[in-house]
Amino acid sequence: MKKRRSAVAAMAAALLLSAVCSSVSANIHHYSFDDDGNVSSKPKSSASSDKNKDTKDEKDDKKDTRKSELVIIDDNEFYIAQENLSTCNNLLDATINTGYDAKFPSKPFKLTDVTYSIVDHKTIQAKFVDPDDDEKYVIIRKGKDTSPVSDDMTAHPKSYKRTVEKTSVVYYGNSEKKIYTVTWTKDGFNYSIRYSKGVSISSMQSVVSSMIKLNKKDD
Prior knowledge:
The chain is of the alpha+beta class and 219 residues long.
């Protein structure tokens, strides 16, 4: 009888959670930029960009096996990752579905509109968008997994390793003044931030610092 009750309870919980976050197939845009920060006609190859890197990320050797497709928007080429995105009503719903907590900074880069989602059933995502410009956005992710959590599959020409809040982080972009993505690992979780417009390392670092402090493991 107890086993039957447990099974019924588990089924009810599963139905409840499935109603919380609606699952849809999401296409995430990935940009390839030239040295001036403009969208290039095609992505730079990782082989030619390695020699330009300030430091080499140890995780670069881990092959990203996710599928992607190329689409043309306004005469520009974009790489789109094929990911399963479940949009949630709020952050609490996302944490309930994944089983772990996540906190995000308020209005990063002064972006106000936020949507919370779960990526591939395991990574929590917060997307902050400029209400007046939907191409100006930042995507911040936290995932408890060994695979990459960043949605950025672009082979950026340069990377820079820095220490923020006693944590090793890696910035990716065209220069120290044009950073698009940053990744790091802390307390068993992988994190990533991608800003569509690109910012300086110092500007990105303030958001990274805030994210690390918010998700600091209690002693």
